[in-house]
């Protein structure tokens, strides 16, 4: 019989980044008593790292912009594999979500006539990113955090308790979603500070945990990005969609080694930064793919003119979608034309006066100065691709953000799949998490209200199993056993996992390497079973990492299996042995599900692979949305059947 | 790439007590203090507790004291130290320790709740707001705050006098009051809330004697004292002692 502390809530939101906080605000405003649970301190989520801006067709900087153009750009960027209804809702609702932030106190940069300023970004036809210098993510998270506090102040006035209807459980980790039959019944969690276990009982759980980047060695992601939400959903029986699509941001810092991977915002290119190789050549002109040929400048002169006169010139190819730029940089480095530390040069110093750079890119100036001792107003930055974002994620219903197959489970933000197709445009992440964060909170609250008296019960056996699973690292086989049973160091396992994913399932993929990756992952899974920790449960990072390993290994297997299966190159998935986009794959989704029933503890045989893939044909794109494109363009993407229907 | 062995002293312990522990640890070119703490975790002290998140100076999680000075571990390059020097890393002193380098910063979250939220103007719908860059610049500076709480840690009003914590919000939250007070859209005054007065009466602005310690340690370079606290003090004083302002505010409130 379990003696774990329990509390009852209406909606539990796992994750307190942009999507989680927006979901929580909506659920609370719809009358649901809402708990938010997050691994870091409140306000420190990875969202603070977002620099460029929030993509929304508000037409403040170019009156021709509207949601249809934004939709079109998003589908082009995602190479038509987007869940089109999500892309439509996203493009339609993003402006309202940005304006709403202003009513909560956000202070965006302004246009001359006092509206929200909008800047250029890769893949967007018009300047569309609402921004605050290059610290938009911080503004977003802080505004949502302060909105939460304002709701708590309202509750305090009414009930005398700040946390009566909206509470943040900070520095806590969820290790299992609990279920009552097929329905969600709550979550099992531990408090990092004390190591104490607790259960939040609720009919609806919103997963908003972000991404998976900590499975890769070179990444822009924070430590929290260990694929927790992906794994929680998977273990609760919800499938993951198209996990092969992992975005490598073209410009991470490559020097010094300790900051390798940390992001250099795309606004550097949006504001006029150019990419050059070691020969000084502006090489992106050589890498414009056929599908984008008509949309991009053919000469440096035309590209340069575009910054001043975008209506009569085409944009420079530095502003191609991220996958194209990342692959181009990769090719230049491989051809021996890279910078001294294995990247290429990104230069704003020759194109903007120093004071303009400091004003428009203050965080970048600061970051390079402090971390790399480089003055970007005077010299070029060295940059290279870094693992940044996973387009794949929990398969959700486009309207309600409900996860498939598990009533009461919802997902929003990076952890949800489908919105971005095979590649995400910069700026579409912050708008995605606002639009679908709100939708997830709304539908979770409605679902709970509909649950009435028949609220789900928490099953004691599941709680006990979850507690046993979480305590396992403290009783990993001791050194007295045979050598192959000695406890493993979780830090070592993590480093090996990162190296494996980086080397074998990275930016360019090959069949043999991914098969090798799956073997390595299986070995690591066996060893992770013996991950052991020293010390006790109070704020013990070794223990926390040992538990996160389960999630990273599960998610990594999903990525590797799906990447092996998809025999084409599209967006964030590039196969050297299948180098072109194949129209036959246009309407194919790959779904990952666990091989075995998942209700028990993770006591399944660790040697065998744990993930099975199924193919699914996507729903045809609605004709009025297809009509937004020229026929010649569609021919490059759609399958024969789709074209002639 | 060159590497060397550095001498580190790291505080280890919990609320019950603890002390400095010596380590010899490898340092490579281009590393920051947080890299070294991570190396200690993965090689010598797997349960060494430290908060961190972005490792790029943007989230404000890895605040600690390095050789007694409040700093972000991720923004302190090893190259600023002499190779022979012993580097001492200790938790923030103004807050109760939880374990090793992790402290209980709950004080800050409590104070954050006590500052009345932004008040949107009535009758203006989303998308209708107009503000000019020169008007938003002032509050934008304060919104760069990453809530690392180094200013709170170094402020002697709380650092040396635990008993002041009830009455004093600390520089971060007085700056928040200033941010809202200078916010071009904030309609607090119309709703009868005088932010300058609350800074003085409820958040302890009077305790601040502008020694600028907070400004000194701010990793974002925010001029907390000059641009937030002093103007707030001036406003609070103007309000309190200028009879015309006092009368005007009485009349305006009565008529609204």
From TrEMBL, chain A:
Keyword field: FAD, Flavoprotein, Oxidoreductase
Cofactor or coenzyme needed: FAD
Domain of life: Bacteria
Pfam families, per database record: FAD_binding_2, Succ_DH_flav_C
Active-site residue numbers: 322 (proton acceptor)
Residue ranges of coiled coil: none
MF terms in GO: steroid dehydrogenase activity, acting on the CH-CH group of donors
SUPFAM superfamilies, per database record: FAD/NAD(P)-binding domain, Succinate dehydrogenase/fumarate reductase flavoprotein C-terminal domain, Succinate dehydrogenase/fumarate reductase flavoprotein, catalytic domain
Domain Fumarate reductase/succinate dehydrogenase flavoprotein-like C-terminal positions: 494-592
Protein name stated in the entry: Fumarate reductase/succinate dehydrogenase flavoprotein subunit
Organism lineage string: Bacteria, Bacillati, Actinomycetota, Actinomycetes, Kitasatosporales
UniProtKB/TrEMBL annotation, chain B:
Cofactor (UniProt): [3Fe-4S] cluster; [4Fe-4S] cluster; [2Fe-2S] cluster
Gene Ontology terms: cellular component: plasma membrane
Molecular function, one GO term: 4 iron, 4 sulfur cluster binding
Pfam families, alphabetized: Fer2_3, Fer4_8
GO BP of this protein: respiratory electron transport chain; tricarboxylic acid cycle
Superkingdom assignment: Bacteria
Pathway noted in the entry: Carbohydrate metabolism; tricarboxylic acid cycle
Keywords: 2Fe-2S, 4Fe-4S, Iron, Iron-sulfur, Metal-binding, Oxidoreductase
Residue ranges annotated for the 2Fe-2S ferredoxin-type domain, each copy included: 6-93
Annotated SUPFAM superfamilies: 2Fe-2S ferredoxin-like, alpha-helical ferredoxin
Annotated NCBIfam families: dhsB, PRK12386.1
Family stated for the protein in its record: Belongs to the succinate dehydrogenase/fumarate reductase iron-sulfur protein family.
Protein name: Succinate dehydrogenase/fumarate reductase iron-sulfur subunit
């Amino acid at each position: 019989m379990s003696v774990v502390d329990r509390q009852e809530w209406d909606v539990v939101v796992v994750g307190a980044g942009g999507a989680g906080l927006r979901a929580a605000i909506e659920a609370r405003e719809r009358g649901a008593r809402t708990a938010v649970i997050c691994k870091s301190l409140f306000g420190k989520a990875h969202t603070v790292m977002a620099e460029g801006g929030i993509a929304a067709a508000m037409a403040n900087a170019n009156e021709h912009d509207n949601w249809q153009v934004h939709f079109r750009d998003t589908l082009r960027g995602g190479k038509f594999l987007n869940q089109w209804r999500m892309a439509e809702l996203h493009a339609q609702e993003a402006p309202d979500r940005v304006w709403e932030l202003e009513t909560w106190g956000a202070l965006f940069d302004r246009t001359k006539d006092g509206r929200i300023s909008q800047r250029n970004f890769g893949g967007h036809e018009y300047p569309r990113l609402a921004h605050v210098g290059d610290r938009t993510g911080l503004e977003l998270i802080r505004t949502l955090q302060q909105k939460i506090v304002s709701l708590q102040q309202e509750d305090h006035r009414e009930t005398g308790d700040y946390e009566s209807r909206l509470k943040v459980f900070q520095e806590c980790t969820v290790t299992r979603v609990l279920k009552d039959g097929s329905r969600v019944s709550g979550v099992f969690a531990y408090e990092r500070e004390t190591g104490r276990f607790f259960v939040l009982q609720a009919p609806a759980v919103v997963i908003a945990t972000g991404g998976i980047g900590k499975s890769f060695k070179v990444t822009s992601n924070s430590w929290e990005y260990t694929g927790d939400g992906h794994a929680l959903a998977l273990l609760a029986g919800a499938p993951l969609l198209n996990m092969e699509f992992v975005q490598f941001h073209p410009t991470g810092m490559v020097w010094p080694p300790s900051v390798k991977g940390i992001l250099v915002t795309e606004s550097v290119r949006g504001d006029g930064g150019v990419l050059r190789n070691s020969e000084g050549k502006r090489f992106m002109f050589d890498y414009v793919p056929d599908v984008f040929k008509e949309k991009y400048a053919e000469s440096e002169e035309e590209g340069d003119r575009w910054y001043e006169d975008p209506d009569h010139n085409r944009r420079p190819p530095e502003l191609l979608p991220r996958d194209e730029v990342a692959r181009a940089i990769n090719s230049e480095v491989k051809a021996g034309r890279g910078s001294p530390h294995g990247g290429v040069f990104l230069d704003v110093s020759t194109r903007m006066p120093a004071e303009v750079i400091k004003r428009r890119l203050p965080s970048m100036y600061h970051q390079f100065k402090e971390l790399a001792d480089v003055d970007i107003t005077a010299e070029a930055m060295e940059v290279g691709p870094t693992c940044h974002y996973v387009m794949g994620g929990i398969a959700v219903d486009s309207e309600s953000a409900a996860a498939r197959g598990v009533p009461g489970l919802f997902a929003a933000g990076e952890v949800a799949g489908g919105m971005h197709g095979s590649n995400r445009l910069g700026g579409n992440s912050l708008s995605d998490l606002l639009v679908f964060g709100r939708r997830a909170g709304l539908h979770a609250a409605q679902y709970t209200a509909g649950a009435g008296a028949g609220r789900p019960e928490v099953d004691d056996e599941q709680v006990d199993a979850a507690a046993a699973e979480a305590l396992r690292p403290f009783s990993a086989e001791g050194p007295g056993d045979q050598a192959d049973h000695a406890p493993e160091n979780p830090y070592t396992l993590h480093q090996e996992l990162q190296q494996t994913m980086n080397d074998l399932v990275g930016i360019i993929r090959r069949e043999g390497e991914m098969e090798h990756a799956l073997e390595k992952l299986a070995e690591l899974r066996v060893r992770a079973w013996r991950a052991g920790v020293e010390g006790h449960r109070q704020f013990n990072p070794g223990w926390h990492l040992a538990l996160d390993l389960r999630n990273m290994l599960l998610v990594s297997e999903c990525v590797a299996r799906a990447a092996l299966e998809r025999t084409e190159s599209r967006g964030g998935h590039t196969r050297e042995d299948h180098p072109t986009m194949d129209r036959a794959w246009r309407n194919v989704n790959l779904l990952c599900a666990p091989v075995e029933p998942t209700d028990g503890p993770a006591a399944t045989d660790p040697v065998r692979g744990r993930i099975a893939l199924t193919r699914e044909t996507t729903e045809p794109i609605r004709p009025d949305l297809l009509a937004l494109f020229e026929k010649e363009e569609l021919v490059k993407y759609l399958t024969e059947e789709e074209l002639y229907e | 790439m060159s590497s060397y062995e550095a001498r580190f002293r790291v505080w280890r312990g919990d609320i019950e007590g603890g002390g400095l522990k010596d380590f010899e640890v490898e340092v490579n070119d281009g590393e920051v203090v947080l890299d070294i703490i991570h190396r200690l975790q993965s090689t010598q002290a797997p349960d060494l507790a430290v908060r961190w998140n972005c490792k790029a100076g943007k989230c404000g999680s890895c605040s600690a004291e390095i050789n007694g000075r409040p700093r972000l571990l991720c923004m302190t390059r090893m190259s600023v130290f002499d190779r022979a020097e012993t580097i001492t890393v200790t938790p923030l002193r103004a807050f109760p320790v939880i374990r090793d380098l992790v402290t209980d910063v709950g004080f800050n979250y409590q104070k954050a709740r006590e500052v009345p939220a932004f008040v949107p103007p009535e009758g203006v719908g989303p998308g209708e707001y107009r503000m000019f860059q020169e008007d938003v610049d002032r509050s934008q500076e304060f919104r760069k705050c990453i809530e690392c709480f180094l200013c709170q840690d170094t402020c002697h009003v709380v650092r040396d006098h635990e008993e002041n914590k009830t009455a004093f919000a600390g520089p971060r939250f007085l700056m928040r009051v200033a941010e809202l007070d200078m916010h071009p859209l904030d309609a607090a005054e119309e709703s009868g809330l005088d932010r300058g007065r609350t800074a003085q009466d409820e958040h302890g602005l009077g305790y601040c004697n502008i020694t600028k310690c907070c400004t000194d340690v701010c990793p974002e370079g925010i001029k907390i004292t000059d641009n937030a606290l002093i103007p707030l003090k001036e406003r609070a004083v103007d309000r309190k002692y200028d009879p015309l302002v006092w009368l005007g505010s009485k009349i305006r409130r009565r008529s609204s």
